[in-house]
Amino acid sequence: MEKSYNRLLENNKNWVSEHLKLDPHYFEKLSKGQTPEYLWIGCSDSRVPANEVTGTKPGEMFVHRNIANMVVHSDMNMLSVLSYAVEVLKVKHIIVCGHYGCGGVLAAMGNKQYGLIDNWLRNIKDVYKNHRHEIESIEDITLRANRFVELNVIEQVYDLGKTSIVQNAWKNHQPLHIHGWVYDLSDGIIRDLDVSFKSADELPSVYKFEE
Length: 211
Ligand code: CO
Known about the structure:
Layout: H1 2-22, H2 26-30, E1 38-43, H3 50-54, E2 61-66, H4 76-88, E3 93-99, H5 103-109, H6 117-130, H7 132-136, H8 141-161, H9 164-171, E4 177-183, E5 190-192
Helix pairs in contact: 5-6
This protein binds cobalt (II) ion.
């Protein structure tokens, strides 16, 4: 047990020396500040590391992860990350990235009780309820779960667009695009779900704030 834990600190030392070999000022430069172009909202799942699957380096991507990549409009953690990313860092793209085989989404499809997490899964169950007919029309259980993962991402992109943070950025003509992606654990490929928005005009009018 100790060994696997110490391995992380050993890895870190190697990682530092590898970077310093290529650029002796690497950490000195990074410590001066960050100007990431992207905010990633992804799942906490250990198999979907944001930087690694997108080939981005430290400093390039601001990251928020939670179970099943949710945008819950009463979640102070997500809202604080979003606010800082949009208003201070002025990221240009926000990406909600789900993944097939997501444990949170699969749990939300069933009726088993898991404890405290059930309160979080409730938000995903609401997505299911809204798309029940489409989801249940798919016979194959894997394909059904995959579609639910996609629909969940799409709903989270909409929910992002409904926040005052994103809407105010659009109102102020700040360039900001929001996107929905899904990562496939079985082949490592990210698929763009083509739900990109760059203005509030593309949202259902009930969610649009007055200019
Ligand atoms: Co997941």
